[in-house]
Amino acid sequence: MALLSFLGYFVQAQQSPLYQDTRQQQWVDSVFNALSQEQRLGQLFMVAAYSNKDERHYTEIEALIRRFNLGGLIFFQGGPGRQAHLTNRYQQAAPTPLLIAMDAEWGLGMRLDSVISYPRQIALGAIKNDQLIYDMGAEIARQSKRLGVHINFAPVVDINSNPNNPVIGFRSFGENKFRVAQKGIAYMKGMQDHGLMADAKHFPGHGDTGTDSHYSLPVIRHSSLRMDSVELFPFRSLIDQGLMSAMVAHIHVPAYDTIPNKATTLSKNVVTDLLKTSMKFDGLIFTDALNMRGVSDYYPPGEVDMEALLAGNDVLLYSEDVPLTIELIKEAFVSGRLQEDDINRRIKKILAAKYKLGLNKPQEVALQNLHEDLNAPKGLVVKQKLFESAVTVVKNEEQALPFKHLEIKNFASLSLGEKEGNEFQLMLDNYAPFTHYALKNEQKTIEAYSELINKLKWYDVVVVGVHGLNNTVKKNFGVNPNDAFFLDMLAKYTQVVTVVFGNPYSLKFFEQQKTLVCAYQDEAMMREVAPQALFGAFEVNGSLPVSVSASLKEGTGNTLPSLGRLGYGLPESVQVSSDILAKIDAIAREAIESKATPGCQVLVAKGGKVILNKGYGYQTYDSLIPVNSQTIYDVASVTKVAATLQTVMFLEDRDIISLDKKASNYLPELRATNKKNLSINAILAHQAGLQPYIPFWKRTLDETGQPQADFYSAYPESSFLSQVAGGLYGHTSLKDSVWKWTLESDLLPLKKRWSSYEYKYSDMGFYIMQKMSERLLNQPMEIFLEDNLYRPLGLSTMTYLPLCKFPVDRIAPTERDTYFRNEQICGIVHDQGAAMYGGIAGHAGIFSNANDLAILMQMHLQNGYYGGHRYFQEKTIPKFTEKHFRGNRRGLGWDKPATGKENNPASQYASYKTYGHTGFTGTAVWVDPEHDLIYVFLSNRIYPDANNTLLIKNNIRTRVQDVIYEAMWSDKNVTDLAN
Which residues form the Glycoside hydrolase family 3 N-terminal domain (predicted)? Predict the structure, then answer.
């Protein structure tokens, strides 16, 4: 008999997802045999627990556990720390370890504060790559187990074929049974492969209901044939793939049970005959919550539990009266209404599940670092990838997306239902110059709409974010009908791109729009992802999981290609440690506290994604204006590569110049000077014998040190139109004078050994390069750059003469000049020679924020390609960024890491392919192609005194760069890798 029992158990083990080996059976039998009847029956119950209630509630739960040996708890609202404390308390009180469960359909954040919430299942239904859903399941498993949770009542595999469903809707993967099954399997396997029990719900299918079983009993009148071919399909698919548990719904299906108001939860025809026998499911079967009115309206507490057991359920979820139910079960054993052997088998099944989930040993949640572990960056990376993959371009009739040809577009954004300056608008600013508008719900009047149309109709493109929506069918998902009418009117005047941050069913109110995007949820991360999709930072291929209207069917979705624009995300998305990268904060604080600089911007991009873009400190030491990502800095000599070198590369790229030819071939005025034989490549490599720096400004002062009247005026008048300082304007001839003095300047002595010039960094060569470029381009350099590079790239801050475009409070001030201009310099180039040149010089004069420099550098990292446009041939940038002269570390225009005994301007870990430049004001940009890496550091270290060299002495810029490499190689020896 014992042998037969064992063989029967073994056969069962081959079929069931819960059984595994003889050691499990031995544990189950030993625990079962050690329990009293009442303790055994307690295993059938899973009681509701909260971590946001008072001690009275906690004591009541603990008493139930001690008295009846409850099988488990389902935690609802609260916080992770409080829940962890309570879990330990309850586990300690439990004679048999408790199964801890949660409704975490979109992660622990569905119930708890301060933890990750993943996209709702309707958004997951839009995703083509099911591996991402598996990854989410794995992350939810990791987080749940960390919190002491063993079962997640997910996935929902109801097919939402009824758009008016008030309870499933956004909780479903969609209306397509194959899509629902595939994604349900991916979610289930992600959890179960990583030790968390999945639970498919709500059997036999709650999708085609028009009422909510929390408040009444929905009725589904489909035939059994229809139920079998549609509603049961996902459940059968998950069962075939090893589903460990299922939850039965509180719905009435007359095709299965003709007894009026008989919920499927309480129907033997459904639970035993259909699920267990016909579908051969041998996992745990949970009732839906027994306090829901779908069943509680028809049966009192205790009796509803009995009906659920009679139907064949294993676990009674949210039982309202455990003591009464246990007494009724005992009575049913005596009367024969329940068979004790049958109930015992279910109890052993529960114990088998406990063993499989690791409850054969003591349970304790480690409290230390709980918050950090639950919110680990890798979990957020998964979330961002899901949101990126879910974005659905529903309509793109005018092929407006992804945005190209930014130079011919004038952009505005409008946030409906949200304040101005939200995450959506801030991210748009990273891609192009935008003017932002907002209309909150309380401001929506006919006059306000009319005023907005009058303002917005003058823009070429208006990107609209629709916010503040909800998932309530009866309230039109929160859509204000006036918003839809307003957008239809606005579209008559300009191109409107509408992004709906809400339920896809709400799209029917906006289907007249020619460009329509579904972003599914209105939360910070999705607000940041959506603009990246619009501008082509990644490929967009989401599709509608449900049919919205006759014209917007399930499966609708336009694919948008990636245009190679920068994306924005977490360090871990490109295998960089955010914990180590955070060391940059301490270095920045050190710089600010030591007064090496009042503030700075630091940007890091890797793998085409900005993973850090942060402002530190203030623009000045009085701490009035904080530095943020939109603060604009004088980048000083970074101008050489961000401006002048771009024009030189353009000319060489088009075969207009040859680098090894003399500059005098293109500038005849050089032929009569000592510079007649200087080659372009030697000038760019700072190996042409030019003076490092000439203080031209001194020539324009009189013997008392005051500006000469021939050169300057205190007012802009007649020929004095070039602003050199706030109250100082240069004569139109001043630029010609500086050029004349440049031509007349001496050269450094030749090196006798080789009869050539040695490497000597110089500004002078870039006066020559600017003049040559403008001559050959036949236009001012700043206009060429704006039209051919800066505007097409979408650079919103990179410019000469920033005061012509931006308020002064956005610009970090530089030196308090006491020797030439005698004022605080802000918004006017600090370099005196560049100021005399009208603020537009080859060696200085560009202002920018870190983001714009990163975009420019990303184009270089991609060898001339960005935003769907090729700016340079693939061979051009590598030619300029490699070394050309022996004994000279520099490329053509670009600086490179030093070797030997030279002071290294870059990190010691930078690869030999690295190139970049630094600036006198405390700036640096570095590109490392070997590691697909960009680093930008901007500061105004010369405020208020240019003699402040602490930033350099303390090696702040390179130490920050060292941390970046350390964060990249956090699990390896940095020095070994660098070598």
Answer: 38-351
Per residue in 325-379, pLDDT tens?
999 999 999 999 999 999 999 999 999 999 999 999 999 999 999 999 999 999 9
Determine the Cα angle at 871 with ends 867 and 876, to 5°: 130
187-198: per-residue pLDDT in tens?
999 999 999 999
Which ranges constitute the DSSP H helices of 471-557? 481-490, 524-534
Find where tokens 């044939």 sit. Answer: 225
Closest by Cα among 964, 944, 962 to 954: 962
637 shares its domain with 555: no
User: Of 15-29, 61-75, 453-467, which range is least confident?
Assistant: 15-29
Q: Which residues does residue 495 pair with via DSSP β-bridges, in sequence order?
A: 461
Q: Has residue 403 been placed in a domain?
A: yes
Contact indicator for 181, 158 with CB cutoff of 8 Å: no
Kindly state whether residues 343 and 472 are assigned to the same domain. no
pLDDT tens digits, 219-258: 999 999 999 999 999 999 999 999 999 999 999 999 999 9
Domain count, the chain: 3
Residue 604 and residue 529 share a domain: no
Does residue 978 lie within any of the structural domains?
A: no
Asked if 662 and 790 sit in the same domain, the reply is yes
Q: Which domain holds residue 476?
A: 391-563
Report the C-alpha gap between 391 and 382 in whole angstroms. 15
Nearest to 396 by CA among 486, 513, 555: 513
Q: What's 423's domain CATH number?
A: 3.40.50.1700
Please enumerate in sequence order all residues whose Cβ is within 8 A of that of 424, keeping only pairs 6 or more positions apart, or say none.
Answer: 413, 415, 418, 465, 467, 499, 501, 527, 528, 530, 531
Cα–chain center distance at 99 = 34
From 331, 419, 918, select the one nearest 637 (Cα to Cα): 918
Average pLDDT estimate for 907-919: 97
Question: For 854-910, what is each residue's pLDDT tens digit?
Answer: 999 999 999 999 999 999 999 999 999 999 999 899 999 999 999 877 889 999 999
Length of the chain: 979
**138 in the same domain as 213:** yes
> Residue 4 has what pLDDT?
37
Q: Which has the closest alpha carbon to 290: 375, 214, 354?
A: 214
Distance CA 401, CA 463 (A): 11
CATH of the domain at 294: 3.20.20.300
* Residue whose C-alpha is closest to residue 9's, from 280, 20, 342: 20
Residue 569 belongs to a domain: no
Residues 695 and 768 in one domain: yes
* Per-residue pLDDT at 9 exceeds 50: no
Helix, coil or strand: residue 398: coil
Q: List the CATH number of the domain containing 713.
A: 3.40.710.10
For the segment 601-635, what is each residue's pLDDT rounded down to a tens digit? 999 999 999 999 999 999 999 999 999 999 999 99
CA 942 – CA 923 distance, rounded (Å): 11
SS (H, E, C) 696-741: HHHHHECCCCCECCCCEECCCECCEEEEEECCEEEECCHHHHHHHH
Nearest to 130 by CA among 614, 657, 545: 545
Number of H helices, E strands in the chain: 36, 30
Using CA atoms, how far apart are residues 571 and 580, in angstroms rounded to an integer?
A: 10
Q: How far is CA 737 from the centre of its chain?
A: 52
CA nearest to 477, candidates 164, 212, 175: 164
Q: Are residues 678 and 768 in the same domain?
A: yes
Let me know whether 165 and 220 are in one domain.
yes
Distances 625 to 593, 622, 636, 948 between C-alpha atoms, Å: 16, 8, 22, 21
Q: Quote helix, strand, coil % in the chain, to nearest 5.
A: 40, 15, 45
